[in-house]
User: Fold this.
Amino acid sequence: MTRTLCPGQDTQFWKPGDIFEVPCPCCGQGVEFFKDDARRRCLACGHVLENPGKSMGCATWCGYADQCLGNVPSQAVSSAGLREGPLVQRLIEAMKKVFGSDQRRITHALRVLDHAEAILAVEGGDPRVVLAAAVLHDIGIHEAEKKYGSPAGRYQEKEGPAIARPIMEELGLDPETVAHVEKIIANHHSARDIDTLEFRILWDADWLVNIPDEFPEHHGEKMENLIAKIFKTKTGGETARRLYL
Assistant:
């Protein structure tokens, strides 16, 4: 069944000012908000900002609020403190230390994290695995460039796990989570040896960021076919169609 957007969500009803920018209190970088965003992450420093103009009063009376806002699985709800709390911030700081002045790679990781959080909220999965994998998935890229003179995916997969492991261990992640994240990093370009839900979420989040650079010439039916082929979760595919069709 096709769901019709309510006037609050449908952008054709939006007015000037419903998309706005807020300066990050930590670094001053502008952070763009849509009026119905709950929060956004600064792509410069990683700080999470609450939407200062957020109003969801309709959710208290609208019978379709669960469809509008999404049915967030209990596991994701119970992990809300984890998702925006110290662990994620410490992962981000560790990632930024590895990437140094490479703001392009830092920004990419933060954008993938945003998409991974959104997909996780709908699809479920282990938040620790998804969020650690999102922050650290490209962590081997500098070592790949140093050793092989190339950032190619196969080299990232080879070098990344060994760099990610001590970061996760230092932050106190359990061995099972560490091993799962390592395996995701080791397959995040090739998808050879893993097909867990957490892997599929990371795969889709990464592609949501990469599609414009990898396939700039794809539009219309060509893009639809590409999305149908690439994406591994329903939410990832729906997000790609909303963004690129």
User: Anything to note?
Assistant: The chain has two domains: 15-55, 71-244. Confidence is low (pLDDT under 50) at residues 1-5, 56-84.
